[in-house]
Amino acid sequence: MTDTTMHLTTDEIELWAQGLLPAARALHLSDCSLCRVEADRERKVILELVQLAKFAPQPGFADRVMAKVKVPTPVKDWTG
Amino acid sequence: MFSLLFRMVRDRALAEDLAQETFIKVLNGIKSYRPEFKFSSWIFKIANNAAIDHLRRKSIDTLSLDGAPSAETPEQMRATSLQLGDRAESPLDEVENRELGTAIERAIGMLRPEYRSCILLRHVEGYSYEEIADTLELPLGTVKTYIHRARNELRVYLEDRRD
């Protein structure tokens, strides 16, 4: 088995989906329909995941948090 | 961090409460922060623990097409797996979770919490496997297994929806 004949591992498929798989290993996909199908399915899911929306809390969230944080009492400086 | 919490508990108000709890713990416990640990990982760790604790307390049941995380053989996985139709969202859930109403969001919501944390940290937050292992205090192999199983479940769910 060589770089181009050996089936891709799950980790390699993830690298390919992210465009990070070395070219020598990626060549295998042009010859192997089994890996190609698997890689395409994996890429679709990964693309959907990376495109997910970012959510933010309601306005005023930071103020509500800070209102509940214990603010340390300043230590009185007796030297000055 | 709020996105992670929202997707973990699937309730905006609750996610906000947990985010608040997380930041209060972070700010009040800043002296216990260890600089060798990535600061954002520390926050995610506290947030994730808050979400997991909540889910455990509430015993929100999740299902897995691949069975229990501890399942090693195909037989064990079959024996501990459930069918997708077993936990459909009610119409009320769907209204409440409009923001999480797309097929991929619903599929994420059906993952067991451990898989959900890992897949969100990996593909939404962009953490490496090693960073996830550190953040969630899990062995690297376990993180890889969870992520591969989670992606497989998501694929099955999404392909099932398209058929």
Explain how this protein is built.
The complex is a heterodimer of chains A (80) and B (163). Chain A has 80 residues and is mainly α. Helix content of chain A is 52%, strand content 0%. The longest helix of chain A has 18 residues, at 33-50. The mean pLDDT of chain A is 83. Chain B is an all-alpha fold. Chain B has a single domain, classed as Arc Repressor Mutant, subunit A (Orthogonal Bundle), CATH 1.10.10.10. Helix content of chain B is 66%, strand content 0%. In chain B, helix 1 (2-9) runs parallel beside helix 3. Mean pLDDT of chain B is 81; it is low at 82-86. The chains are: A mainly alpha (80), B mainly alpha (163). At the A-B interface, helix 4 and helix 5 of A face helix 1, helix 2 and helix 9 of B.
Largest sheet of chain B: none
Look up the CATH topology of chain B. Answer: Arc Repressor Mutant, subunit A
- Report the C-alpha radius of gyration of chain A, rounded: 26 Å
pLDDT < 50 stretches of chain A: none
The assigned structural class of chain A equals mainly alpha
Number of helices of chain B: 9
Structural Rg of chain B:
16 Å
Q: Please indicate the percent range of residues of chain A in DSSP E strands (runs of 2 or more).
A: under 5%
**Overall pLDDT level of chain B:** 81
Oligomer: heterodimer
Level-1 CATH class name of chain B: Mainly Alpha
The helix/strand class of chain B is mainly alpha
**Fraction in beta strands of chain B:** under 5%
Q: Any idea what the CATH superfamily of chain B is called? A: Winged helix-like DNA-binding domain superfamily/Winged helix DNA-binding domain
Q: At CATH's second level, what is the architecture of chain B?
A: Orthogonal Bundle
User: What is the succession of H and E elements of chain A?
Assistant: HHHHH
Mean pLDDT figure of chain A: 83
Inertia-based shape of chain B: globular
